Task: structure prediction
Amino acid sequence: MRAIQFTQYGEPSVLEAVELPLPAPGPGEVLVRVAGTTFNQVDATIRAGYLASVFPMELPHIPGIDVSGTVVAVGEGVAPDLVGGNVVAFLPPTSSGASAEYAIVSAELLAAAPASIPLADAATLASSGLTAWQAVIEHADVRAGQRVLVNGAGGGVGGFAVQLAARAGATVIATASPRSRDAVVSDGASQVIDYTSTPVVEALTEPVDAVLNLVRTTPSETAALVALVAPGGVFVSTTTPGESAGGVRTVAVFARSDAAQLTRLAELVDAGELRVDVSERHSLDDLAAVHTMAEAGKLRGKVVLTPTSRS
Result:
């Protein structure tokens, strides 16, 4: 099979296309013919070596923590009727990833892919959808009538977070650049703050019940965001952790794979209650170029990558 891997940490140029033997699923595993994977910032951070002590792994490594595709074989102990099913999964960062024509996936991570969108696009639901669900529903417990600030709404997690908070009945205030404004409004934001022209702490004149922080912030910026939350509210961050103050609860989110939650997200997509926004599509052979674009700040939302079809 054709795959993209890196044999050493470094710049995007370390990503290279290679031909590898087709892997065989072991006990509790399935072999998935990959329809799509996505670009995630954590993939780039791992590739650069910044998380080598956090996520130790053997090199060479195939990146890609999101996968959607079709089960083509199962290992011992896995129900054979999974073969032929379209699935989606969030893979552990240390496992061999989905930037390949085929990927090995633990069967316990699988959820049925939504049928109403292209199978490749379903990969966007995995890490980003689960991060948003766990931040909005599980940790912030967003409810109707609340005011919620989503800081970083233009990113891949942000779009899902805005939708889930709005679906819960909250009034959503979102920070986004002009290029993401229309998408964020479509996701359900009632107010969009252009952070490129106005600091959020100046634009927000009333306290909120929850802040979902999805971008890396300095300690002073983080403290200022925590200060925007009313007493009894919550500051939830997927990046820089906050310190509790003034009766505000703080939570650091480390997204985990959860097949039941992923199944629910897929159901919401098929019910028309959750929109998947794919900003760009690329061939897997363009993965190094996509990493370079990300480093230059040229990506918005979710970017889907698909294996190059071969006759």
Remarks:
- The longest strand covers residues 29-38.
- DSSP finds eight helices and 15 strands in the chain.
- The CA atoms of residues 242 and 277 lie 29 Å apart.
- The first helix runs from residue 41 to 48.
